[in-house]
Design brief:
The protein has 134 residues and is α+β, with helices and mostly antiparallel strands. 24% of the residues lie in helices and 35% in strands. The longest helix is centred in the middle third of the chain and has 16 residues.
């Protein structure tokens, strides 16, 4: 699963969907049948594989399910921004309160969340509503 991309897409309510397929799907050995010809897909209705995936990195396993699959076409600059956010979160998780102590002086501050830190760069992609239920 594209772990860094899914929460960002949820946050901006934009999955860059172009096509939707409803019906019965089979996931077997990293292949989904039928599959939209998209670089990314969103899966909903699966017992254990709901989420956003790169088309060439589908999960291993076997499952037949009735659900919905969307073909997603995010722009390259958005994908790069998601990778940047994920790397930033790995280096320095943005949650909670940080504290430093210098002798008798102690400082505490709240770190910005990734949503706040990247708000200006995510704004052009934001939508009012989403059509993807992942």
């Amino acid at each position: 699963m594209t772990d860094g991309m899914t929460p960002v897409m949820r946050h901006i309510r934009n999955f860059f969907e172009r096509e939707r397929m409803d019906g019965k799907f089979t996931l077997q050995s990293g292949t989904l049948v039928p599959m939209p010809p998209a670089p990314y897909i969103a899966v909903s209705g699966s017992a254990g594989h709901d989420g956003v995936y790169a088309a060439d990195a589908l999960p291993e396993g076997e499952e037949t399910f009735t659900g919905t699959v969307w073909g997603l076409y995010p722009p390259k600059d958005f994908v790069a921004l998601c990778e940047e956010i994920a790397e930033s979160e790995k280096r320095d998780p943005q949650d909670g309160v940080s504290e430093e102590q210098f002798g008798i002086y102690r400082c505490q501050w709240t770190k910005k969340s990734w949503q706040e830190a990247y708000a200006d760069r995510l704004a052009p992609y934001r939508r009012m509503f989403t059509e993807v239920g992942v």
